[in-house]
Amino acid sequence: MEPFVVKAYAKLNLALDLVGKREDGYHLLRMVNQSVSLADRLTILPSDILFVKCDDADLPDGPENIVYRAAKHFYEIVPEAPKIQIQIEKHIPHEAGLGGGSTDAAAVLQILNQISGKPFSEKALLALGERIGADVPFCIKGGTALVEGIGEQIALLNEMPACKIVLCKPKIGVETKAAFEMADRLPSLEACYSENVKQAVKEGNLIKLSASLGNFFEDILKLPEILKLKAAFLKMGALGAAMTGSGSVVFGIFEDPILAQKCVDSLKKQYDETFLCEPVSVPLQIEP
User: Fold this and answer.
1) Which end of the chain, N or C, is surrounded by fewer C-beta atoms within 10 Å?
2) Residues 36 and 112 reside in one and the same domain
3) 167 φ, ψ to 5°?
4) Contact indicator for 46, 84 with CB cutoff of 8 Å
5) Domain-embedded: residue 114
6) pLDDT for the residue 188
7) Interacting residues of 123 by C-beta distance below 8 A, sequence separation 6+
8) Which of 130, 157, 184 is a domain's end point?
9) How much is the pLDDT for 255?
10) Residues of the chain under the 50 pLDDT cut
11) Is 11 a catalytic site residue?
């Protein structure tokens, strides 16, 4: 096997509704997810043993890394699969709501399945991904999708209309566990964003889609920095803006690429982790 490089794409929640809770404590979600062109780069090399190295000092190498855990699960079921070394070049911010770890894990599962002769069907690979993390199944499918349950129910939708998307991570952290605990104290949960976004995607209506963006966690957390960023996006010409996941990245959708670039240039003066990207219809790409 020759070494090769894989781009693993980030994900956004165009809509995120928390709709209930199972008896086992897992929360039920209804989301419209979108893959975007911001990507980590994974270099895959032949090896005698599984080895994972990440260039971000804030993230673990080896068995503590979600990529290592994903590969280990694969090898437990297919022990004869070729062993690989995985070098991760991080570009997707972590703890941001962009699925950076999940998309890397999903990419490795797909690569291992490919180089092993596809012992897993897509359905079986998605089930394996669910064991790794809630976002992994979507990151295996990629594109534009309605995602329900705890993340395992995925229905692909029409592709999101062409646009530019600006991502910005403020210098605040959002504790996912605390966000879910806050949600548990609310009297009732019902979907309010996902249906409108789903319909706008079906119609291919970017203006309607952008006006329908919404995130349950953003609503209950009411973080001033998030609200400030959303207002900044709209002032700079975004058609709509919202937080993704449980935060803390905020994104704005732009029809005009010149306005999008101006927004990036402006936000970068205050926020280092600001990125310009666009929707993509696949979860990963193998670089030539």
Assistant:
1) C
2) yes
3) -110, 140
4) yes
5) yes
6) 62
7) none
8) 157
9) 98
10) none
11) yes
